[in-house]
Amino acid sequence: MLSRNAQGLYWMGRYLERAEHLSRLLRLQVEALVDRPIREIHFGWNRLYISLNRHPPGGPLELLGDEEDDPLGDSYTLADSYTLADDLTFERSNPDSVFSCFAMGRENARQMRNRISAEMWSCLNRAYLRLQDLTIQKIWKVSPENFYMETARDIDTFNGVAEVTMYRDEGWRFWRLGRSIERAQSSAGLFLAQMNAGRRIDSSLGEDWTGLLRFCQAFDAYNRKYSVDVQPDQVLDLLVTDPHLPGSLFRSLNGAVVELDAIGRGPIAESGAQARRLAGRLRALIHYAWPDREDHESLLQWIGENCRKLHELVIAAYVDYPIEDSPLR
Questions:
Q1: Exposed e or buried b for every residue in 235-273, given b needs 16+ CB within 10 A?
Q2: H or E stretch including 212?
């Protein structure tokens, strides 16, 4: 298929997956504003910004106090949360905000309308038109958690419509490949941020590991496999290695391996082969090396870095290659 078609469908998958990931994280965060301690709210915002590798507006987030020695702590946290939520939701200059990612996903879908079904376009366009009329002021007055839930649901609906209407050609494979790589990279960044933010505030915050399970839709699976006692090491093992958990890091990388194998070598055979080998190596690392090693943080860092390298190899193999190197010239 044409490289511009591959590029558009690949990025459509990545941008919409990123928007859904951030919407679910923000829903978890704003729900915590109702009745959670200030320290946990502060932890959640730090985790969000660390996972996105983005600096908060106004500088680093500082915990001014707690409920006992800072009677203004609650009001400070809520006011600050309003600004942070706006930055991550509607800020046009932030390329990773929910609106920016959704808009870019929709733009790639618009350019690829000849490669996607009419039902997919209608579903995505309706959701985009709803977003255009909203601001942080409007959603904050009513129920911001409902906004994030509806946005994630709109993307889930789009993915479901794609599953039942999209033609199973290479375009389908590139869309799924983009989703798999984005999910793997986002998951690795989130797990690292969970550990990093915990060190910064010098607190284990067991509730936040429970929140991470709920975000990954793995709380029930954890209870069945382990117990109601949430242990950080067991949470990581489940979210990283479990082959039966839909959102695990292993399944995301396995999805990338499957799609790359189905797409084939591409115009630049060596880059395509390197991408397939790297994806297979990352999957094997989780399956075979993770259980026997204790340096899980360094492993996650290596996986995150190589997910970015995998993306670069995919672009080099199927999208951004010199014309003179193509066998079709």
A1: bbbbbbbbeebebbbbbbbbbbbbbbeebeebbbeebbe
A2: helix 206-215
Token pair 């941020």 in the structure block, residue: 193
> Which residue, chain included where needed, has tokens 């106004």?
58
Tens digit of each residue's pLDDT (9 = 90 or more) over 225-278: 998 899 999 999 999 999 999 999 999 999 999 999 999 887 777 889 999 999
**The Cα angle at residue 320 between residues 319 and 321, in degrees rounded to 5:** 105
The torsion of the CA quartet 295, 299, 305, 311, rounded to 10 degrees, works out to: -170
Strand intervals (E) in 68-225: none
The answer to whether 117 touches 166, Cβ cutoff 8 Å, is yes
Is the model's pTM score more than 0.85?
Answer: yes
Residues comprising the chain, all counted: 329
Which helix H or strand E contains 228, and what residues bound it? none
Mean pLDDT, rounded, for 11-21: 98
- For residues 316, 317, 320 and 322, what is the CA-based torsion angle, rounded to 10 degrees? 100
> Position of tokens 């794609």?
162
Question: Residue 293 — φ and ψ, nearest 5°?
Answer: -120, 150
